[in-house]
Amino acid sequence: xxxxxxxxxxxxxxxxxxxxxxxxxxxxxxxxxxxxxxxxxxxxxxxxxxxxxxxxxxxxxxxxxxxxxxxxxxxxxxxxxxxxxxxxxxxxxxxxxxxxxxxxxxxxxxxxxxxxxxxxxxxxxxxxxxxxxxxxxxxxxxxxxxxxxxxxxxxxxxxxxxxxxxxxxxxxxxxxxxxxxxxxxxxxxxxxxxxxxxxxxxxxxxxxxxxxxxxxxxxxxxxxxxxxxxxxxxxxxxxxxxxxxxxxxxxxxxxxxxxxxxxxxxxxxxxxxxxxxxxxxxxxxxxxxx
Length: 290
Description:
This protein has one helix and 24 strands. By secondary structure, it is mostly beta strands. The chain is globular.
């Protein structure tokens, strides 16, 4: 699988939030605007789904079973067997125009998720850290559209972007305390190359970023320099995630939202999940320990 292939022609509206479960060897992902959680098994091609009561941005697998999910009304735990959502904490109940978007677990078992103004106009969003004791702290302010959340392999750097500002930042990350400091610009994405969307890191420290509207994934080296550009057959790739038994396959979710009829004809697999072998390996994703 050296070329980019569509492994699931999902026809999602806003496919996002892929997360590989290294034990179960399945790929969780969400369709934000069709309000569904999916679980794709590449071994047999089966894609299960569970409806959500509202827009769903991201998730993590709980070490004790089930999921923790970031939705419009904040954090919830989800029992896959009963399909029951239990609210945990809604930090933005006073912001009716906001919803949660990109999120991931860190390697100490906390869940981080960013929020956004759903109209993508006002900087009312931010980045939150949900602790294993279910306490919640706002870590970053002034964000329009949260994306590109990931950590360097040595756990010393946190990456995070505002898609609407075309900027990806880096912070020093204290993994034990779960705190961030020393914010600086990591990458400024040119307008002509699309908006920085979801991201992940490989074992060598490369940061892979999906460029919404750019028909591409870009691998940046740890200094923020473009190392590699991979063209994809859809305009709106949304987020990459390493998976497969050897963590050597890069899966990419995508979106079909707001495409014209002519654009749909040009990219009939928009909204699907794509995959290819990038020649580098990823790192196993962690579980939420709450």
